[in-house]
């Protein structure tokens, strides 16, 4: 096939790289319209790694995409509307703001869902064999006429008329479209986890409540999220150098040393909040936050496009990452359904995607800078008050 190939080709020559929410949403909608698609993912299986924390699905983005995928009712059956609660706490442990959602059914607002549950929902909606696990892309090679050859770590290759880069922050597909690479935002999260919280960690459970709690002071803080199954995921957040642990001579696998170093950085904070450091059931994971330069755009190239973090990696303080990825997937799938050729479809999609991505990324960059500024607590309080 050539770049003008019709979309409803009988051979599965649309390749999605990455089985995240955006890529799976795109594949689901394509399959609903009988357009063949194959998804390739580097993980050995769906259960190969933890899928992460909790997500709030917005009506005009994530929920819109789920409706297009005919999965909205299934999502609502799994969602946690009470998870919309947003709480701001001072360094002294005092509650400064408590945004409790009104008692309503799950169709209102931005109900929460665990990433793992959303991932399973999308995966289970696909035809068996759609996702090829243990397929790590090492190189994407143009072979002419809009066709690209995918090289996998196991030595195999396959060709596709359209390669959709849904492969995240360090996308291999993006390298053919742009020289842009993610940059460190200046903020690092150190993740900790707490199990059976209402029984084993009642003080931390009460502080987190039903949704998300943030405590910010002097460019540091805690973000705790209630997940399903009695689990709380916490991010100990710091504006710091990317190599902060190396400068401290810290071995990140030494749990006690990490705990003591974090405690030394949070001197003067409430003992209640310091429990998010001292009492972790899961140890600690260092997670420096990265973002693509803003604006991030590229010149249209036949046979290639991007969605999700591959297109617009931004800080999690946007609250839009997964929502936008799923909207990208839905919009790209719809463009492929509506247009006569793949190239026409991708052109139409990118005209929507690129300006939207720039706007969202600018907002995300501003949000993380505000939160981890010297007066971050006041900045976030003003935002919460305005939106609740």
Automatic annotation (TrEMBL):
Question: Known InterPro entries for this protein?
Answer: FAD-bd, FAD/NAD-bd_sf, TetX_monooxygenase
Which reactions appear under catalytic activity for this entry? a tetracycline + NADPH + O2 + H(+) = an 11a-hydroxytetracycline + NADP(+) + H2O
Family matches, as Gene3D superfamilies: FAD/NAD(P)-binding domain
Q: What is this protein called?
A: Flavin-dependent monooxygenase
Q: Give me the Gene Ontology terms describing cellular component.
A: cytoplasm
Q: What is known of its domains?
A: Consists of an N-terminal FAD-binding domain with a Rossman fold and a C-terminal substrate-binding domain.
Entry-linked SUPFAM superfamilies:
FAD/NAD(P)-binding domain
Q: What is its EC number?
A: 1.14.13.-
Binding of NADPH, residues? 49
Q: Which keywords does this chain's UniProt record carry? A: Cytoplasm, FAD, Flavoprotein, Monooxygenase, NADP, Nucleotide-binding, Oxidoreductase
Task: Summarize the protein's role.
Answer: An FAD-requiring monooxygenase active on some tetracycline antibiotic derivatives, which leads to their inactivation. Hydroxylates carbon 11a of tetracycline and some analogs.
Task: Using the record's annotation, list all stretches that form the FAD-binding domain.
Answer: 14-339
